[in-house]
Structures are given as C-alpha cells and as structure tokens.
Design brief:
By secondary structure, the chain is mainly beta. Helix content is 5%, strand content 34%. It has five helices and 58 strands. The strands form 15 sheets. A five-stranded antiparallel sheet has the order 3-6-11-8-9, with no helix packed on it. A five-stranded antiparallel sheet has the order 4-5-12-7-10, with no helix packed on it. The chain has a five-stranded antiparallel sheet with strand order 17-16-15-14-52, with no helix packed on it. The radius of gyration is 28 Å and the shape is globular. The relative contact order is 0.12. Mean pLDDT is 92; it is low at 1-46 and 715-719.
Length: 815
Amino acid sequence: MSLTTGRNPLKERRRRGRRARLATAVLVTVTASAGLLLSAPGPASAGSNLLVNPGFESVRANGEPTCWQKSGWGDNDFTYALTGAAEAHSGGRAMSVTLTRRLSGDRKALMLEDTSCAPNVSPSHQYDLSLWYKSTTPDASVTVFRHDVKDGWQYWTDLKTLPVSAGYTRAQVRTPVVPPGTDQITWGVSVYGTGTVTTDDYVMEDATQPAPGDVCTAGAACTKGSWAVMPFKNPVRSMHSVVLRNGKVLLVAGSGNDPEMFKAGTFTSAVYDPKTGAMKTVPTPVDMFCAGHVQLSDGRVLIMSGNKAYPAADGSHGYEGFKDSYLFDPSSESYVKTNDMNDGHWYPSATILGNGDVISFGGLREDSTGSVTAEKFSQAQQKWLPMNEVNQTWSYWGLYPSMILMQDGRLFYSGSHVFGNGTPGTGASVYDYGANKITDVPGLQDKDHRDQSASVLLPPAQDQRVLTMGGGNVNTNPEANRHTDIIDLKKPNPAYAPGPLLPQGEVDQGQGRKPQTGGQGKMYVSAVLLPDGKVLETGGGLHDRADPVYEASMFNPAANTFQPGLATDPIPRTYHSSAFLLPDGRVMAVGDNPGNGTFDDHVSIYTPPYLYKGARPQITSVATDQWSYASTQRITVDRPVVKAELIRPAAVTHSSDPNQRFVDLPMSVGSDGRTIDLNVTSNPNLAPPGWYMLFAVDAAGVPSVASWVHLGGPQATAAEASPMVHGFAGGMPHSAEKKQEPKRTSVKVDTQIAGCDRHYGAENVCVPTVFPAKVAPTTKARCEWLGKHGYKNLRVNGKDDPLRLDPDGNGKACG
C-alpha cells in the first residue's frame, strides 16, 4: 500500500495551504493551565507526511478507518465513533474516543500495527508528530509504540499531555531519537479520564538534525574524555555527596570514619562551589557518618540517622545507628533537627515518592541489630510518621538497599546493597507499599556477590529499565565480578537478563598497576547519568577496601553496550568514594577509604568527550523555573538542539543513589528552531517533585550548562491532568510473593558485618576477616599482604589471635 493511500485530494490541498500559512505564523501562548502550544511546524521536517489515511477519510468494509485500530486496556466503559464533516477539522471525518467510566487503563485510536500501515522510521532519526484535536478531558496524551526487529511491537513512550480545548487546537511534539533496531512506529492519543477527545489531520515528518562535523582537536580526549586532579584538597573526609539546588555540592563526613574525631565530638561537612572553587566548612551537629540522604521537594536535604557508636574492639557490639534526623538548608547552609525516626538506621535507604514523601528501609539499630522498621517522612506534615501510620512487612532489607521508584508508585529493590549476602530468595524484588506485598523478581546473577554493586534507572526514566553492575562480598572477600544485569520493568512479568560484561582495566594489588585478567571486575563502582543519555561507570576495587581498579567506560542504553577504554581517574576510588554529575556537564569524584584507615582527600574532575566537540548550545531563556506536571514549558536556545531532559541532582554514598534519574522532555520546535516547548510528564512517579537540572543537547551530543527548574510542589496540585500510569509488571506470579514476616523488633546481625576483624588495629582499621584467595593462610603471607596495603603498627586487641598474626604473643600483629 502506498504511503498516500486513502488521502482526500481536497483535504490534502487544504492541509498544504494551512501548512504554508503556519510556516509564517508566530508562536502563541495559551492559558497557563493549558500550557504552551505551537502553531508552526519545526524547521527540519522533510515536508512529506509519512502517515497512511491521516484524516480517517478512507474506510474499510467493516466501517473502521483504514490503517487505524481501537486499542486500550483496563477497567473502563468507552465508545469510538467516526464523526461527520460537521465535527471534522477538515474533510469529511474525524475520530472521537469517549470514556464514561474509568477505574483503570485507557482507550486510544491507534495507527494499525501492520507493515503496510505503520510508518517506517530510521534509527537515530527524530520525527515531528502533530494532530488537530478538541477535548473535554485533561487526561489525554500522545502515546507512541515502536516495532523492534527482534522483539516485535512494544510500548515506547508518552510524549505530550493534551490540555482541554473546546475548539480544534493543533498539538505538535518531536519524538526522542529512534532506538537501534526500530523499523516502524505507531502512535495516537490515549484517553485515560472520563470525557471525549476528537482528533483529525495527523501528520508525521522527519525532523532529523544533522550532526555537525568533527571539530575535536583534543587528541585522545575526543573519544576518552580527560581527568584533572584539582589543586586543592577536600577539607573533610566526605562519605556523602549531594548536589544542591544552587549548583553547590554538600560533602558530609561526620566523623569521617575516624574514631578519634568521634570521641572528640568533631563532626564535619563542607560546601563546595564548582564555579569559584571555594570550599566552606559547615558546623555539623552529629556523626552523620553512613547516614541516608535525599533532596526534598523544596530543595532541602533530609539526612537520616548516622553513627551512634563504632564497633567495640572486643567485638561485643558492632556499628550502632541513632534515630536522629536533620534537614540541611542550602540557603543558610546549616542543619536543623527534625523529629526522631522510630528506630536507629545506620546505612538506611532513602527514596522520594511521587507525592514528595520519603520512605526508608534497612540499616543497623541502636543495639547493632538489623532494623526491620520501615520509616516514612511526610511531605505534608514535615515529620517522620509514627510507626503505626507506616505499612510494615517486618523485612530486613540489609544496608543501603537500592530501592528505585517505579512509574506506578511501587518500589523496585534492585539487589544492590552494602555488606554481606543479598536478601533471601532471588535477591531482587518489587515492593507494593499500598498492598504491602513483596514479589521476588528472577534473573539476578550471583545474587550473594552484589555487595557494593551499582544500580541505576537508565535514561530515560520513561523506559523503566534498570542496570546493575559489578559487586563482591565483604564476608567471603572474593575477587569482584564483571556481571551486569538489565531489567525492563515494562514487561508483564519482568526479569533480569544478563548484560554485557564490565570492561576491564588495570588493578593495583600492592605491586603496581597490572591488567585485569579472567573474571576480575570491581565493587564500589560508581554510575553517573550524563546529559547525552549515556551512563559513565568509574572507580572501584577488586577486593573489600583494597586493590583499586583503574577503569572507566560509557554505557549506551540504546545499544546495551559499553564503550571501554575511557580516561581513568588517577586517584584510587574504592570504599567511601562518590562520583556525580555537576550542572556544567562534568563529573566530580571524591573520597577513598581503604582498609588501613587512610583517606585520599584529592578531588578529581572528569570532562566527558562531548565537551571536546565544539561550542556548547546555550539555554538563553526559561519562561519560568516553576514547573507543574502535565504542562508545556517554553525555553529558547541559541541554536538548534535535538533533545532536552531533567536530571535529578545527585545524593550519593557507597555507590548508591536510587533517586538518580533522567527524565525525557519531548519537544515541540518553533519555526525559528530556537523557540522550544518542552512537554512535562503528568506522572510524578517518573519525576518526583523537586529541583532538577535542565539540559538541552545538540545533534552531536553536546549539552548546555544546566538551568535549574522546580517541578511539582504547590504548582503540581493545581495541574488539571491526572497522572498517566501504565499497567506494567501486572503479570508477576503470585507464587513469587514473599510470605509476610511475623511482627518482630529486629534481626540479629554479626558484629563483623563490615567484613573487618576487630581483633587487630584501631577501630577504623579494617583487617579483612577473609583474605583474598591468592593470599596463603599463613602468618608470613598475610603479613606481607597487609604490609603491601599500608597497614602499620597493628596491635592485637585482647588475647585472641584468630588470624595468627602474632605468633610470638607480644601483642603486636606482624611485629
């Protein structure tokens, strides 16, 4: 069938005339509640409508329009109707979809998923989609499906929420870059609230911007990027890094894993300004060493729990967590106490929800046992809720469990954690807080060796895919692995599948750098979302607090591949290190705490390859920095860009930042190519309320410097549209549901959970309970290993010598 089959000639002449008139039209502003719409197509369109029967003029024998189908899901009552000429925008027909009752799901008129009907597309291209519509419901959006040559038809993304309009209004939006392996797409309008949406005159045109020529003259940095070690040092032994809403960085040390500072009550933080290089130390009220943290919707940082006590030298107790909680205010650069949590939580999780609440799990209690108490901080009440107002499963999730918010409000526990084995079962789960049910997810490789792995929600958040990388086990102390696993949470019954192996680099095992071999990977790996849509993985070590690995790579979510061989940070980055995105598109790395108790205070900055590709685009104006959900927001740029996104600022520690996310902003481009309307998701679960970095990216992948915008808050409550939530992951088997744990206070946790034998050295020195496999179980071999790794003047605490490090009994290990 020809791509022009079914077109009405009169209608085509009207459309061409209307397009010519629109080409000279200016951009117009509709009401604030309706957002911004464009009355002119983008400049890069190919000018040829790629759609079959775009105005419903051709009808099949069954009365339905050629190349269109009725589609949808859920519990709702609906009708479809082909209207007459009186209701059409042009020609003789339009399509209306009406919902009269809705409990769940949506209905849509969708282009037929058929090789002769669905428009063909080219990977790496972008397409301008437009239609004319009128609507009595705010709950409608442009939805796109794509055909993967391997996996068939699948949901792709929602691009734009359509405001209520009594008369016909033109809506236009540009697709993201078409993923590899995609040969066709279909699209239409999803109606997910009661009311009627009538549509007509659909258009799809190629809007691909050619990438500029190669202008990089920086040698290897053009493809590998470059690292620079700053001429100043971190004034605090920071364990926690938070990018604040003003672009500064909060570096929290507490006692900095230094028991002497703990005993002296010396707790520290610093605020770093990347623009000026200034470091300011900040009074810190308690030992926030190994606390949890997350940005609230107003930009303040909620910091929960921390270190009440270091482990006793005799092993009578381990680390202890307290109940205290504080807010850090970026404006005053000071801490203010909140009410206490219900339990102590040393190493807790912290996940912000779509309504701005924060939920927290895991960690160690005040008595060193494992906490089974779920905690919830209420955005509305600005306090931690009492335990009886928080759903409890009495599950022990471990330390820093990676809990990622899904698009339907459930939580995905990725299997990444700190210390010891994974959770019982498959090691990864979906937790439905409303139903208070945990369902195991299969497929995670070697789930008891994912300690200090990294998990990240891949760009864009709308794709609902999670990548987990690397890991080891501090108890058994094997060589860290190269595993990666990817899960698509849009599947009816999602499961992890193996991803490509982590690339290998060089490892220093006390004898200088040597190439990694065999299955050697890394733990303590950092993962950073970049504005070009890729993920930088960097840093890490081969063993618990030892043997740094010098390797960095770039993961491409579109191709599921790593680009190996990037420039490597010259500073070792293992335990207690952080890497995170700055608003200027560079990456900052701090920290390292090997087992001998030392701490590297150098600061490194990575300049990715995209910053060597020539001039950067600039966001020259943002109409407002206060954004609401389901709105359209206008920006201007100094030259054409191909995509824009919101990236949530980092709050990272111990390889963990479950709130890190990249949210695509589908664009509608004005006739000048520089005035752009960005379409904001209607779903707060995809982009929880708060401050975000707004980047615009050109065709070469070069990003602008970020502008700061605030999403949600009071503006969100005034938005007319309801969240567009899909029924993904609805087919998980009941057999995988975990049995509810009995009500209990805690679970017993070994005092050596950190993998450290406290019989030796000081409290902040971690002599491994199990040495690497290549170290023979003899006094000589163990002492040689300790010497090569910087352990000095080790004393024996008490009479026991389980590792036989003091054969002459003089109280000095390896003496």
